[in-house]
Amino acid sequence: MVAPKPAYDRILLKLSGESLLGKREFGIDFSTAAAIAQEIKDVHGQGVRVAIMIGGGNIFRGARATAEGVERVAADQMGLLATVMNGIALQDALEKVGVDTRHISAIEMKSIAEPFIRRRVLRHLEKGRVVIFTAGIGSPYFTTDTAAALRALEIKAQVILKATKVDGVYSADPLKDKTAKRFAKIRYLDCLKRGLQVMDATAISLCKDNNLPIVVFSLRRRGNIARAVRGEDIGTKVY
After folding, report:
1. Rounded Cα gap, residues 100 and 147, in angstroms
2. Which residues pair with 104 in a beta bridge?
3. What is the pLDDT, as a whole number, of residue 66?
4. Which of 85, 124, 155, 197 could bridge 129 with an S-S bond, Cβ 3.0-4.6 Å?
């Protein structure tokens, strides 16, 4: 039986730091990282060029620190460094399953990761390497959602695949409101008007201005990354 052809040739996968938690309340569950790495390998093996933007909420949340009195810039910088730790863990997991990777940090740290140089990153993708982006765009006040949108445009990704804890975009928080309805498709402007927590407003606006679609889906079901890449109806498409 011939495997279904991917709907996209080049993707940016947005992973939250929480995706690496597994059943833990804090930190990195390495068996979960290994399972995600295997899913990425399966997609990569179909010839899809894969870049990943990873968050750091499983280790440190800048917003929480700010609420406790930490200065915003300092809190955001600590959050950016947390993403680098996750990037190292994910790179290790990917290389253990035989996937050639490059870790690209927006904050310069020569002994750990490469700096972001667009032409070099494009070359990595052309050579079939999986690229892991960490440290957002290297500046406070910008979320990893905004960084994902920016990097996706810079590498000419055809879509942002946002893996979350829920299976799409809902009219309200489905964990709190049992009457919440999932959208199969929703326009960028409707996300902004309704204040839906798909990605932050800056990221949504950037995608809207450049006609870059976002697919929001659950990472909890095994194989969903491949299903999203094949264009199956497993979440919500923002367009």
Report:
1. 23
2. 114, 133
3. 87
4. 124
Per the CB < 8 A criterion, the answer to whether 8 and 48 are in contact is yes
Count, in order, helices (H) and strands (E) of the chain. 8, 11
C-beta separation of 58 from 86 below 8 A = yes
**What tokens does 81 get?**
């460094």
pLDDT at residue 50, rounded to an integer: 98
- Would you give the DSSP letter of residue 153? H
Question: For 9-29, how does the pLDDT look when each residue is reduced to its tens digit (9 = 90+)?
Answer: 999 999 999 999 999 999 999
* Residues 14, 162 contacting (CB under 8 angstroms): yes
Domain ranges of the chain: 10-238
102 pairs with which residues across the strands?
Answer: 131
Q: What is the pLDDT of residue 32?
A: 97
Residue 10 near residue 47 (C-beta atoms within 8 A): no
What is the helix (H) or strand (E) element at residue 40, kind and residue range? helix 30-44
Say if CB 208 and CB 188 are below 8 A apart.
yes
3-state class of 205 per DSSP? helix
Residues β-bridged to residue 103 = 132
Token output for 33: 């990282």
pLDDT < 70 positions in the chain: 1-3
Out of 3.40.50.620, 3.40.1160.10, 2.160.10.10, 3.40.50.300, the CATH code matching 10-238 is 3.40.1160.10
Distance CA 55, CA 199 (A): 13
